[in-house]
């Protein structure tokens, strides 16, 4: 996508310029609050508080946490990825645009690029593994993209992309490892910052965002650097999906990850350019990881209590706020009496009822009607699934 | 609940007065649009258009339908019932209030009354069948109500209510068959009317609401009578749950219904006082019913496309708009070139991930991976469930 050195610098004002460039094309998604979940976040988690009696304990508890959910599930194509794709295209010259764009992705970036290309009236070539789910292929075609199939290894995919570039001269738009993508994704933080202030004039103390390839987390950190709002990243811990956290701890970026975490948007390793931001303690104050059960419990609350339809990746930041004892101790220490106002990035809502059915299928009738899962909070076992 | 004859008359201005009385206590819930679903509604339904390629057919099709979703799933307690309960309490004298309130309900009305009573600082006695789901009992207790168990027949429940009234002097607040409840529920229509106008200055041509006991539908019809906005009711057809439609057709209210439709909020027969409004063709222009599969298909679209978490009952009006050929022919005939702006009442979002898992469990792996269900639209079979 052009020369990286010709991109704007990774600064808050570049994110502001990106926002001005794309805001005609994207939704200013709502920021919502949910008293029940904020109350839960302010209460030590027990099986009762997760199972429908959040008001049983009404004494104010530490840490006091008010949550502000940035609903990128209501963004065009159902995820924040539309921001980066529109920004990337806004940075191309007319001549570059005329050749079309190409990427390899089977997820939200494919649809985002297809939509942005259609809006600009240019071709989008999307390389997808033959084994992609039919609904994702159909959705990408539905946005008018030219879908080209490949094998599923990254070598196979990149070979097909190279062929497309050779044949058409199309410009490669990568999913996260590019400054223009990072700046585009970061625009959500500018809106969240303003919207939280409209809801509570104290504004935000912190933002927690999910981290896969790191394009969005690094963009958010860039957008908020210098504002006093602390930025934290969150990952699944399953099968080493917490590569960014482990990389930051060891001081070396981890380049390969192989995980089937339910948070399927966060399976990718951190990109090189995002790494430069995310490993900078001044910009990202900390990385936290959560278990699959904690992600499911947070996702349940977002669905059943906040009534917002989100994909598992979007539930990861809330899982950190609710269940990570280190995170909670830090908020208690730094937030004091007043507590913290925390922005939570709900990154997307592209899942299906079948996928939810698979995640939460009722315990079989032979079982006792109550499955339990260790959520790792205060050593308590927390009921995760009450059949019925 | 006092004497019915002392209630305000069933007029639009009484609904406006009800709104003024309760608006400090309720949420002004958002009205949202969803381009994808409006496009689907404007396109004859085929398996492709339901399975992720809504843009495959981009030629404008008749009837042209723009949908405006009134999100009462974001109302306090997760359903419109909070409106009626707060209004009923606002009509009681201090002396009446001091004795507390009582009802029998295992659903949204129980929680609504419990919340309204807690807000007024008075006791709420809620009679629930012993077999109620634990999460509903917990939620009702969570709002501070005194839950009293009974058998599950209506005789058993009413006997317990009578005992409570004898013991405490508490005032009975019925779930739907009362003018104050109807006027309270109708307040959602005033907001929807205004919000749709803010989104499109043409305003609404019609509203479709679900109908169970009929308290909300009759309130909506009362609120909009004289505005030119047509009001329609919608019911499940399963096991005779379309009692209001059948009653209106035959001219006699049907007093008993026994159905286990998935739209569990709509299993009750139409109440006497709602009947007087709903059977008046000037006020409710028509009743429509849909199959279980049509409700599921509409619910899937609301979850996966609009990203709003709703209970099955809330999907019934959209199912009518998408799949009822009589309704669609009428819109085509009456709407002409311009089509209709239709308000859809999303009545509530109180369901669980387990319930959704049960509704949409993936086809077993022995099966071909594709279940089909007849949706009854143009005689086509429509793919309902693509495993994976």
Automatic annotation (TrEMBL), chains A, B:
Q: Does the keyword Lyase apply?
A: yes
Domain named Tryptophan synthase beta chain-like PALP: which ranges? 51-324
Please give the Pfam families that the UniProt record associates with this protein: PALP
Cofactor(s) for this UniProt protein: pyridoxal 5'-phosphate
Alphabetized UniProt keyword annotations: Lyase, Pyridoxal phosphate
User: What is the similarity comment for this entry?
Assistant: Belongs to the serine/threonine dehydratase family.
* Protein name stated in the entry: Tryptophan synthase beta subunit-like PLP-dependent enzyme
This protein's species is Aureobasidium namibiae CBS 147.97
């Amino acid at each position: 996508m052009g020369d990286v050195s010709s991109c704007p610098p990774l600064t808050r004002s570049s994110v502001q310029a990106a926002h001005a460039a794309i805001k005609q094309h994207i939704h200013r998604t709502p920021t919502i609050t949910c008293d029940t979940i904020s109350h839960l976040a302010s209460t030590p988690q027990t099986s009762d508080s997760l199972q429908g009696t959040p008001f049983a304990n009404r004494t104010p508890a530490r840490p006091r946490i008010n949550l502000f959910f940035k609903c990128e599930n209501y963004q065009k194509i159902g995820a924040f990825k539309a921001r980066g794709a529109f920004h990337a295209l806004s940075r191309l010259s007319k001549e570059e645009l005329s050749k079309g764009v190409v990427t390899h992705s089977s997820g939200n970036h494919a649809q985002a690029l297809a939509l942005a290309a259609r809006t600009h009236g240019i071709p989008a070539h999307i390389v997808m593994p033959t084994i992609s789910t039919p609904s994702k292929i159909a959705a990408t075609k539905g946005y008018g993209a030219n879908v080209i199939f490949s094998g599923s290894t990254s070598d196979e995919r990149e070979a097909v992309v190279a062929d497309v570039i050779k044949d058409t001269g199309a410009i490669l738009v990568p999913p996260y490892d590019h400054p223009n993508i990072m700046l585009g994704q970061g625009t959500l933080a500018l809106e969240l910052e303003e919207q939280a202030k409209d809801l509570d004039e104290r504004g935000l103390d912190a933002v927690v965002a999910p981290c896969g390839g790191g394009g969005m987390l690094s963009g958010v950190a860039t957008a908020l650097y210098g504002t006093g709002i602390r930025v934290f990243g969150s990952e699944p811990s399953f099968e080493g999906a917490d590569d960014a956290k482990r990389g930051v701890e060891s001081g070396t970026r981890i380049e390969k990850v192989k995980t089937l975490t339910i948070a399927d948007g966060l399976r990718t390793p951190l990109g090189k350019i995002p790494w430069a931001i995310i490993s900078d303690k001044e910009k990202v104050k900390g990385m936290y990881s959560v278990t699959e059960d904690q992600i499911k419990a947070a996702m349940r609350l977002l669905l059943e209590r906040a009534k917002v339809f989100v994909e598992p990746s979007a539930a990861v930041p809330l899982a950190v706020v609710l269940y990570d004892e280190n995170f909670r101790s830090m908020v208690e220490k730094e937030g004091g009496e007043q507590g913290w106002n925390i922005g939570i990035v709900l990154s997307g809502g592209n899942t299906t009822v079948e996928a939810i059915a698979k995640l939460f299928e009722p315990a079989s009738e032979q079982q006792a009607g109550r499955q339990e899962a260790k959520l790792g909070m205060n050593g308590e076992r927390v009921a995760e699934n009450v059949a019925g």
